[in-house]
Specification:
The protein has 275 residues and is an all-alpha fold. It has 2 domains: 131 residues, no CATH class; 139 residues, no CATH class. 77% of the residues lie in helices and 3% in strands. The termini are far apart.
Length: 275
């Protein structure tokens, strides 16, 4: 427990300055590093970490895409680069399997490719939200949604939990905890909206209806992301994805719920801007 607390304090001490200076390239660089480390953790999980011919291009793209969203002014240019990168990596993976003459099973390589796209897409989405219109006041909802849901799902489940959610994947999660996480996330989003609207109302106004919808969606999606990550760990029989955060595991252990919330937040606000 002591190790977990110390790690959490150090992580917060690093995370806060990164957010404070998120106007600068330091933020996308941080997301790029997390993206590349997460891809490496998944490579270790699937047994591809020593196959550098396959993984090095993935690491490069994992770093390139989050940073490119900051450097490319037009969003359409970023989407074009992302599509080219994803398609290139698909062709590369298929060519890799062919040249290896089936020494690596195509099912395993394509699984790794799919998870690579998932990881890089999610971390890139965090950067996309930060640099969209009004993103300076919106992107924190990604972290708020995931971590509030995770925290209150834990405490609600601990004190009120009676019915197991999906014990085959996560034995400790309960239906009551899941509901508690959803309720408190929605409350947290509305409170965050009150703070932003009351203090920065001249720059942005966030709809409370939109916040309730996003709070509901984020809390559900964050739990799905958590369960998916747990399911993969159980299938490959590992306890943690990595050791970057002592007592907490790796990037995928700490950001599993954050990752899926990012593209959902991005999509919701894109739709809201059109409507």
């Amino acid at each position: 427990m002591k190790t977990r607390i110390i790690t959490a304090i150090v992580a917060i001490a690093i995370f806060v300055p990164i957010c404070i200076f998120s106007d600068y390239i330091v933020f996308p660089i941080a997301m790029a590093i997390l993206s590349a480390v997460a891809v490496n953790e998944m490579a270790r999980c699937l047994g591809f970490n020593k196959k550098l011919v396959l993984t090095i291009p993935m690491y490069l793209i994992a770093i390139l895409l989050p940073i490119s969203r900051f450097l490319l002014i037009k969003q359409s240019h970023f989407f074009m680069l992302a599509m080219i990168s994803v398609f290139f990596m698909l062709i590369y993976c298929l060519t890799y399997v062919m040249l290896r003459k089936n020494q690596d099973r195509i099912n395993d390589v394509i699984t790794f490719y799919g998870l690579f796209v998932y990881i890089v897409g999610c971390f890139s989405s965090i950067v996309c939200v930060r640099y969209m219109a009004g993103g300076k006041y919106i992107y924190l909802l990604i972290f708020l949604g995931a971590w509030v849901c995770d925290t209150f799902a834990y405490f609600t489940g601990k004190f009120l939990g009676k019915h197991k959610l999906i014990p085959e994947i996560s034995p400790k999660k309960t239906v009551e905890g899941s509901i508690g996480g959803i309720v408190f996330t929605i409350i947290a989003f509305v409170v965050y909206g009150l703070i932003v609207n009351n203090n920065f109302g001249d720059k942005i106004k966030i709809s409370y209806v939109l916040l309730v919808i996003l709070g509901l969606a984020s809390s559900i999606i964050s739990q799905i992301g958590d369960l998916v990550a747990s399911s993969i760990k159980r299938q490959y029989e590992i306890k943690d994805y990595g050791r970057l955060f002592p007592g907490h595991g790796g990037v995928l252990d700490r950001f599993d719920s954050v990752m899926l919330v990012a593209p959902v937040t991005y999509i919701v606000f894109l739709i809201a801007s059109v409507i």
